[in-house]
From TrEMBL:
This is N-acetyltransferase domain-containing protein. Residues 3-207 form the N-acetyltransferase domain. Gene3D superfamilies: 3.40.630.30. SUPFAM superfamilies: Acyl-CoA N-acyltransferases (Nat). InterPro entries: Acyl_CoA_acyltransferase, Glycosyl_Hydrolase_84, GNAT_dom. GO terms for molecular function: acyltransferase activity, transferring groups other than amino-acyl groups. It comes from Tetrapyrgos nigripes.
Length: 207
C-alpha cells in the first residue's frame, strides 16, 4: 500500500477524530472507555484544523483517508487563549458531565470546563507544540519519523519563538518515549513527567 503525507485540512475532521480515539488510551484504543467517542478528538485533534495559529499534516492511504497525523500550534499561548474563548465553551455546553455514564467521558466533560494549559517550563523551551498519532497497523514503518521531519521542516520557516517544539505524552506509553528519545527529544527541565522537546536545529532529518 502506498502512503503519502499531505497538509491536514478541515475535511479530515472525522478521520482525525477516529485516529485519536483509536490511540487515546496510552497508544491503544479507547473505544470501550467512551460512549462519546468523539471527545478525545475534540480535545486533542480536531481543533488543529479549526483554530488560528495551528498547523498539521496527515499520513494518507491510496484513497486519501488519513491513517495518522501530526498536528500542533506555532504559538501555544495564543492557541490556548483562542480556544478558551471560542472552542471549549461551546463544547462544555454541548457535553454536560451529568450526561456521562463512563468515567472517561466524565473526565473529558469536566476537562472542557477547566482545560489544562501548558507548563511555563514548556513555553520557556519553545512556543510550538505537537500531537502525533498513527493507527497501529501503520506504526513501526518509519512514518512517525517522517511526519516529525515534515513538521520540523515546516516550522523552520515559521520563525517559532524558542526555535523548538515540544509535546506532552502519557507516561504509561513507554514505547512512545523510546521513539521520541531515538529522535533526540529530551525531558524539559522543570516540566512534569511526560513533557519532552527538541530544538529544530538539533533534529536530524533523513530526507
Amino acid at each position: 500500500m502506498t502512503l503519502t503525507i499531505r497538509k491536514a485540512v478541515e475535511s479530515d475532521t472525522s478521520a482525525l477524530s477516529r485516529i485519536c480515539l483509536l490511540t487515546a488510551d496510552a497508544g491503544s484504543s479507547a473505544e470501550s472507555l467512551h460512549d462519546y467517542g468523539e471527545l478525545p478528538g475534540l480535545v486533542y485533534a480536531v481543533p488543529y484544523v479549526k483554530l488560528p495559529t495551528t498547523w498539521g499534516f496527515v499520513l494518507v492511504d491510496e484513497s486519501d483517508e488519513a491513517v495518522g497525523y501530526i498536528l500542533g500550534s506555532r504559538d501555544t499561548r495564543a492557541y490556548e487563549e483562542h480556544a478558551a474563548q471560542h472552542w471549549w465553551p461551546n463544547l462544555a455546553e454541548k457535553y454536560p458531565p451529568s450526561t456521562a455514564v463512563k468515567p472517561a467521558d466524565e473526565r473529558y466533560m469536566k476537562l472542557l470546563r477547566n482545560m489544562h494549559v501548558a507548563p511555563e517550563a514548556n513555553i520557556a523551551f519553545a512556543a510550538a507544540h505537537l500531537h502525533i498519532d498513527i493507527l497501529s497497523e501503520y506504526q513501526k514503518q518509519g512514518w512517525g519519523r517522517k511526519l516529525i521531519e515534515t513538521a520540523v521542516e515546516y516550522l523552520k520557516g515559521e520563525q517559532v519563538e524558542g526555535e523548538g517544539i515540544w509535546l506532552g505524552m502519557d507516561p504509561r506509553n513507554t514505547e512512545a518515549r523510546k521513539f521520541y528519545e531515538r529522535l533526540g527529544f529530551k525531558d524539559i527541565e522543570g516540566a512534569p513527567v511526560g513533557n519532552m522537546g527538541i530544538k529544530l536545529a538539533d533534529f536530524v532529518c533523513r530526507k
